[in-house]
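Researcher: Next entry in the queue.
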Amino acid sequence: MRPVRGLILDVACGPGTYGRRVAAEGNTIYGIDISLGMLRQGAAYAAQEKIANIHFSRNRVEALPFADQTFDAAICSGSLHLFPDPAQALHEINRTMKPAAPLAVMTFTPGDKGLFKHAWARKRVQTRGFHLFTLHEMERLLLGSGFVDFQPKKFGSVLTFSARKRTDN
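Model: Structure for this entry, 169 residues:
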């Protein structure tokens, strides 16, 4: 995926770990999270690092406070598997993105390597609301939410992928 310039949504941003890395000249990052503590920590890090073009806001992914087609890109790293309704979260992220805007995600899959290759580990986390996505399931969720060009990469049980908002929605 090519570098994107413009407004970037950082979903479930925590302390802005990834948003602070993509906050460059020409980008403005809007990080949302439900944890006020994480947001405060992110604001402190941004101030310490003198990053002025990142903004933090306490919001739920299911009801983003942004107009339709606001963002030039979105990232969601390390949280999609924790949302109660990943399909609803993806629909809402999609709503706020411009046509053809890229989405970059890191989440988890059962995998053939890593901790989640073990049935006991999968069972343990899934009973606690932690979702493990198969590639087929993730592609289906993305298509149903208005994304295309699913480009997955698996690293053991870690799943990273990019996709783009369809241009006709």
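Model: The chain has a mean pLDDT of 89.
Researcher: Noted, moving on.
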